[in-house]
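Hey L., structure's done. Input below.
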Amino acid sequence: MAIGWIGGTALGHRLPVAPRGPLAVAATFLPLAFVVVLLPTQWAGARSLPPWIVSAAVALVVAGTSARAGPWLGAGGAGTLVSALRGDA
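Output:
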C-alpha cells in the first residue's frame, strides 16, 4: 500500500497537469467515484437522506465560489454536522 501511495504521489507531483487535461479530469472525478462506491455501505434507509441532501446542497452552493477542494470539504463537513446533531450513530 505504501509503495502505491508514494508512487502515485510522486507521479502526480512530477507529471505536468494541464488544467483541462486527462489527469485533471481524473482528479476531479476520483472523489465522486469514492462517494459512489461507499454510498451502499452508508445508506441506512430514508433516515440517512437529510445529511446527504444537505451535503449535496452545500456542494452545489460552494462549487460556484470556491476552488476544487472547497465543495468536497464543505459538503463533507455539512453532512457530518447534520448527522452529528441528529445523533446518528
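Residues 43-89 form one domain. The mean pLDDT is 82.

-- N.
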